[in-house]
Design goal:
80 residues, alpha+beta
């Protein structure tokens, strides 16, 4: 799996305003900004992202995904 493929998978299941993915093919790091995170705690946000990957996580196609999740307002405040 490539970073572009993983980005496409996440974008297909989650409306992202910003998405950056990097990694080595098995271990991934993602920064994800989505309005769908509004009002959700960290675990609920991560579950939304994991849900976009479906069986890819269970079958070890994506071995590990470390992520930072932000709402658009949180991202705007962080990047100012």
């Amino acid at each position: 799996m490539t970073a572009d493929q993983l980005q496409s998978i996440i974008r297909a299941g989650l409306n992202c305003e910003h998405l950056a993915v990097e990694g080595d093919g098995r271990h991934w790091y993602a920064t994800i900004v989505s309005a769908e995170f509004e009002g959700k705690r960290l675990l609920a946000r991560q579950r939304l992202v994991y849900a976009t990957m479906g069986e890819r996580i269970k079958t070890d196609e994506v071995h590990a995904l470390s992520m930072k999740t932000f709402t658009p307002a949180e991202w705007s405040a962080k990047t100012e």
